[in-house]
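Re: that backbone. Tokens:
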């Protein structure tokens, strides 16, 4: 190595150390955003009413939807004070609002769902002291809220906001200006000492409109009414001599300080450009989340210790460099997550832990290739160079397939699914840098510094997982192709039990797929805490078709997670959780909130929990319901959300598989002679992963039948993740087939070449899967606090075990069958092996001993 190359290596190490220091500083100073399942809080799914848009608004909907997201974010952060809030679009017209740590559902509805359209009216049909004989009379309610009744009506017959008569009254008034002319709003204490007022400032247009009314009705004591979303929030007469030339208006509502500040922030955030319809609201208690976070982090630490021990014991000195690079990866990734504002849900933390296992996978592929080159009598530097270069295609292709599935997940998922996909994708991208660049630079730096030059430090005598098979691969390859029928039969036997339980009704959809209510109920001590007992109690209370799953909560509590369908059954509950009345008219926020808590109390009491309401009293003395003692979580899902979830699941699996086929077809096609040849590799991998998907779905049916576990969005996440991992191992073998096709043995058949390639890749396929399998096993038994999370981790564990099997015993044999069909139909000249030989792909010469040169930074460059 030249002096310049040594200096370059030294400065790269300095840069890496600087990045580690920077990431450590960020990790110490920046607070992570915790998800709802950890911090507790509220998640709302709201739909934009597209029918209210004008043609121009429809054409500009992409820009308008971003404006809407910005307004919702400002409302959440300013009006509700939730700085860690998250707002994102799902599909064309749905928006998800997540409010970690926020507990008041009523306040969330009032702030998030309201359009905040402020309108100023001249209330010319409301009686005044100078014009008492008008159609409507204005009075003050218990909390100083303005109330109205017809002048001819009985004293207590007040008009309700939203009713036809109330709207008729508003139409009888004259509109002066709207919130479009509002520049700012500020809450200030009233000069009379009675509550708080809003001080509004309008622009020139709004000021002219208000001043024109003041001038025309001078000294007549006419009323100006402020109307927010169709409800009068303040009405007061114009005092003698008052003008509005400066655009400043005091809105006298005798508000509490909380109401005034919230209204001010709501108005400052801006009115929504489209009406919103609430579709789903879920509430999560924080009591389980903190314990679950500690539990999953503890599982992650154990997983890291096991991984570190494996690297050090099995790979010795290279394992030490990989461990250093892994620590750098953890620091880089965690800092990146914080800077990007990634929300750490339980699933997101699981994704982060899983990405650590994937980062180790890349090092295992490199080190196994390095050991292979050393056994082939390469010098140490040449072996290091070839190990990294020849392992890179497999690493790139497998990680690319994982990234494809995570991108799909980010587009179809919500909440925890998006968090998992985001952490996994970012983790994979960063691991490419640390595994390829940092590990390589550290290894070369140590070797050239006189450390690590002893070949015995590279674990060549470690052959515990099939490495010894590689030494005899050319003479005695495993007879996989010859016995493919036996292995296909084993695959069938793995799938068959799941199919039986699917036919027996073992698949249990959760509330996202079923539509309805999901409630987490803390069971009282002494009640029968089995799923069957909870279901019986609910049935006795008139709640039909429920499915209950039992989990251990903090402090020895037992929690029942209950799914209740409401579309065809339980119509009483359906009406209570609906935002409209039986006659189709919308409920007021207070009515909707009271009905919702009535339904929730009924579920909690029937299940065996404590139905006592949690309340708080605001500054005005008004009592607000903030929760239920025995309720741990609650969510309701409408049919529209259910249909979108089902559609997203189907499209997610389909699109992921299709994109993987196209990617592999292009990668292998360019290397071996065309897209059609590459397509055979891609289709063989996808056919093999269908086996893994069926195994995972079968597991869901078996666990659903015996343990009432449900299919959720996390289950679809597990399936898509398994797809990426299954293809990962198939690619390792396919890459060896691709390499051996360039240098086949004299007179070798394609069957023997495939068997030889599988034998040469056997150990690294086992080792790469083993780290992830151990990680997931630890998460299943130590890091899964809820049934959904346990099912998620268990599904990935079984799926990756199945994927390891199918990659070795199914994918490559399917490729052989494909070749036999092509040979029979189109002749030997159309097969991969014959075409490869005709194109002279045996042109690659072995690299000279120690010939590193400039190729050490290029994994694809070859010398002819």
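Recovered sequence:
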């Amino acid at each position: 190595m030249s002096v310049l190359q040594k200096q370059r290596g030294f400065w790269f190490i300095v840069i890496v150390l600087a990045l580690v220091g920077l990431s450590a500083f960020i990790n110490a100073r920046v607070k992570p955003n915790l998800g709802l399942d950890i911090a507790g809080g509220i998640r709302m799914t709201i739909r934009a009413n597209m029918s209210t848009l004008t043609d121009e608004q429809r054409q500009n909907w992409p820009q308008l939807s971003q404006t809407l997201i910005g307004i919702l974010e400002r409302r959440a952060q300013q009006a509700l004070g939730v700085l860690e809030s998250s707002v994102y679009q799902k599909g064309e017209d749905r928006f998800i609002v997540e409010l970690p740590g926020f507990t008041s559902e009523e306040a969330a509805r009032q702030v998030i769902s309201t359009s905040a359209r402020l309108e100023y009216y001249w209330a010319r049909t409301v009686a005044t002291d100078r014009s008492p004989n008008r159609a409507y009379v204005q009075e003050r309610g218990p909390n100083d809220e303005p109330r109205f009744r017809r002048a001819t009506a009985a004293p207590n017959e007040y008009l309700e906001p939203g009713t036809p008569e109330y709207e008729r009254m508003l139409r009888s008034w004259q509109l002066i200006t709207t919130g479009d002319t509002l520049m700012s709003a500020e809450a200030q204490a009233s000069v009379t000492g009675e509550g708080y007022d809003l001080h509004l400032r309008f622009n020139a247009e709004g000021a002219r409109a208000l001043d024109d009314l003041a001038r025309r009705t001078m000294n007549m004591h006419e009323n100006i009414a402020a109307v927010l979303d169709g409800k009068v929030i303040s009405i007061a007469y114009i005092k003698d001599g008052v003008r509005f030339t400066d655009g400043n208006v005091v809105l006298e509502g005798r508000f509490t300080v909380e109401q005034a500040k919230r209204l001010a922030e709501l108005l400052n955030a801006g009115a929504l450009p489209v009406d919103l319809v609430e579709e789903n609201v879920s509430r999560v208690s924080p009591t389980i989340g903190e314990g679950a976070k500690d539990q999953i982090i503890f599982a992650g630490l154990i997983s890291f210790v096991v991984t570190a021990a494996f690297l050090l014991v099995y790979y010795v000195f290279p394992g030490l460099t990989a461990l250093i690079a892994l620590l750098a990866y953890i620091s880089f990734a965690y800092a990146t997550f914080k800077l990007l504002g990634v929300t750490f849900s339980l699933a997101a933390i699981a994704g982060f832990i899983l990405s650590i296992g994937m980062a180790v996978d890349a090092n295992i592929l490199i080190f196994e290739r390095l050991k292979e080159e050393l056994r082939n009598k390469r010098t140490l530097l040449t072996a290091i160079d070839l190990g990294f270069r020849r392992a890179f295609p497999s690493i790139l292709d497998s990680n690319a397939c994982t990234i494809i599935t995570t991108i799909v997940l980010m587009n179809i998922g919500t909440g925890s699914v998006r968090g998992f996909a985001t952490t996994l994708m970012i983790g994979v991208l960063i691991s490419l840098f640390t595994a390829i660049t940092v590990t390589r630079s550290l290894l070369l730096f140590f070797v050239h510094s006189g450390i690590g030059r002893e070949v015995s430090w590279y674990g060549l005598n470690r052959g515990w997982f099939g490495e010894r098979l590689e030494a005899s691969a050319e003479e005695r390859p495993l007879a996989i192709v010859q016995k493919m029928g036996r292995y296909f039969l084993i695959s069938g036997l793995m799938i068959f039990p799941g199919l039986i339980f699917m036919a027996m009704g073992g698949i249990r959809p959760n509330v996202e797929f079923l539509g309805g209510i999901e409630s987490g109920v803390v069971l009282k001590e002494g009640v029968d805490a089995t799923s069957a007992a909870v279901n019986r109690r609910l049935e006795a209370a008139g709640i039909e078709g429920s499915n209950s799953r039992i989990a251990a909560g903090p402090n020895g509590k037992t929690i029942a997670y209950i799914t209740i369908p409401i579309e065809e059954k339980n119509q009483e509950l359906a009406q209570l959780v609906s935002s409209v009345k039986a006659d189709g008219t919308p409920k007021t926020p207070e009515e909707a909130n009271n009905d919702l808590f009535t339904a929730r109390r009924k579920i909690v009491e029937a299940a065996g929990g404590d139905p006592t309401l949690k309340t708080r009293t605001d500054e005005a003395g008004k009592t607000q319901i903030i929760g239920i003692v025995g309720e741990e979580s609650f969510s309701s899902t409408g049919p529209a959300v259910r249909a979108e979830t089902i559609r997203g699941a189907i499209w997610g699996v389909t699109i992921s598989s299709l994109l993987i086929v196209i990617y592999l077809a292009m990668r292998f096609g360019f290397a071996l002679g065309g897209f059609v040849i590459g397509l055979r590799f891609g289709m063989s991998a996808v056919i093999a992963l269908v086996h893994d998907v069926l195994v995972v779905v079968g597991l869901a049916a078996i666990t659903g039948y015996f343990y009432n576990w449900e299919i959720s969005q996390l289950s679809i996440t597990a399936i898509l993740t398994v797809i990426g991992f299954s293809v990962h191992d198939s690619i390792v073998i396919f890459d060896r087939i691709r390499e051996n096709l360039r240098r086949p043995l004299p007179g070798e058949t394609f069957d023997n070449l495939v068997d030889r390639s599988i034998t040469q890749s056997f150990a690294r396929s086992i080792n790469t899967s083993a780290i992830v399998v151990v990680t997931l096993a630890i998460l299943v038994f130590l890091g899964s606090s809820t049934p959904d999370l346990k099912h998620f981790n268990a599904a990935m564990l079984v799926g990756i075990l199945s994927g390891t099997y199918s990659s070795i015993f199914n994918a490559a044999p399917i490729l052989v069958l494909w070749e036999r069909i092509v040979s029979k139909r189109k002749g030997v000249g159309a097969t991969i092996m014959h075409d490869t030989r005709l194109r002279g792909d045996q042109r690659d010469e072995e690299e000279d001993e120690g010939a590193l040169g400039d190729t050490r930074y290029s994994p694809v460059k070859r010398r002819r």
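The radius of gyration is 33 Å. Confidence is low (pLDDT under 50) at residues 838-864.
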